[in-house]
């Protein structure tokens, strides 16, 4: 399983490269541009995948290299599944199989969010886990926690499930769902900086994109994305303070 985790981690940048070269059809950016939504993020935001892939490969290498291992590591199969699903999402989305891509990204989110929560609760237990497991898995989970909802908006527009002319009501509902997931997960992890940082990065990119958009409701969505980013950052600060302050909560 450890070698499979490394192979799965390596498959993500490899498939991303092939996707950008058009091996499976239009690249993901071109496909996204065909279905404009009020939850689209500025293009620069997706550069975070480079960091995520690099850290995930480091995680796979760490799994192979480390000598001291628990007999049963519940995070390992879930992280491997999350990497495989992340890799699978790219060609499926490029080929226009949007419902399948939507199911895949939420499945990947479930796997990686489980890993982020598990490593947040036990990161003192294993040598090197803070850098090589908690950080990559939390960053990956944080980005997917937002990206899954952005992808949902594109699926809705691509299939015309809801109004494409009046997107604001259902876009705010999706943004609210993303916010609820992010804040509940962050609370469960008692403040996870990597998780929050990835989500805030994406939310600010939504603000940047929608601030310059001419779509009806774009300014409202931009403001809500910025408010959510601020609320998530404030929640993280509060959770860390109550965790570290003497006599409040549980000491770190």
TrEMBL record:
The keyword Signal applies. Residues 1-16 form the signal peptide. The chain crosses the membrane at residues 40-62, 74-93, 99-119, 131-156, 168-185, 192-208, 220-239. Keywords: Membrane, Signal, Transmembrane, Transmembrane helix. It comes from the Bacteria. This is Tryptophan-rich sensory protein. It comes from Lysobacter auxotrophicus.
């Amino acid at each position: 399983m450890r070698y499979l985790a490394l192979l799965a981690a390596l498959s993500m940048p490899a498939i991303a490269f092939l996707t950008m070269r058009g091996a499976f059809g239009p690249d993901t950016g071109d496909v996204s541009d065909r279905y404009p939504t009020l939850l689209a993020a500025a293009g620069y935001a997706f550069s975070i995948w480079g960091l995520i892939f690099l850290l995930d490969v480091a995680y796979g290498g760490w799994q192979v290299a480390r000598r001291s291992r628990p007999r049963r590591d519940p995070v390992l199969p879930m992280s491997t599944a999350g990497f495989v699903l992340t890799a699978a999402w790219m060609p499926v989305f490029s080929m226009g199989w949007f419902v399948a891509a939507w199911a895949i990204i939420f499945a990947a989110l479930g796997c990686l969010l489980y890993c982020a929560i598990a490593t947040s609760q036990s990161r003192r237990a294993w040598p090197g886990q803070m850098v090589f497991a908690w950080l990559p898995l939390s960053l990956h989970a944080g980005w997917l926690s937002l990206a899954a909802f952005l992808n949902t908006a594109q699926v809705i527009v691509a299939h015309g499930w809801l109004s494409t002319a009046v997107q604001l009501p259902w876009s705010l509902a999706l943004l609210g769902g993303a916010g609820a997931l992010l804040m509940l997960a962050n609370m469960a992890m008692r403040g996870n900086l990597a998780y929050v940082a990835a989500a805030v990065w994406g939310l600010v990119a939504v603000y940047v994109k929608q601030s310059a958009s001419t779509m009806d409701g774009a300014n409202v969505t931009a403001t809500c994305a910025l408010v959510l980013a601020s609320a998530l950052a404030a929640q993280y600060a509060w959770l860390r303070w109550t965790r570290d302050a003497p006599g409040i909560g549980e000491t770190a």
